[in-house]
Request: fold
Amino acid sequence: MTKTANDKRPTHIVWQVMGEGDKARWTRIGAGWANHDGKGITLSFDAIPMNGRTVVRAFAETENAQEGGAQ
Reply:
């Protein structure tokens, strides 16, 4: 059984990253929930990036207050 977007709080955030280093721009494009068996993550996308990198990072409370702070 896996967790889905209906669960309360995501365990991961999905980001699109454009650029490199200090000039990189991080845009939140979705969220993820860890599977109950611990062997995967269920992802829900609000947007699909056409270029750049896609990064999945563990959710942090500070990401609620600011977008793009995942560096």
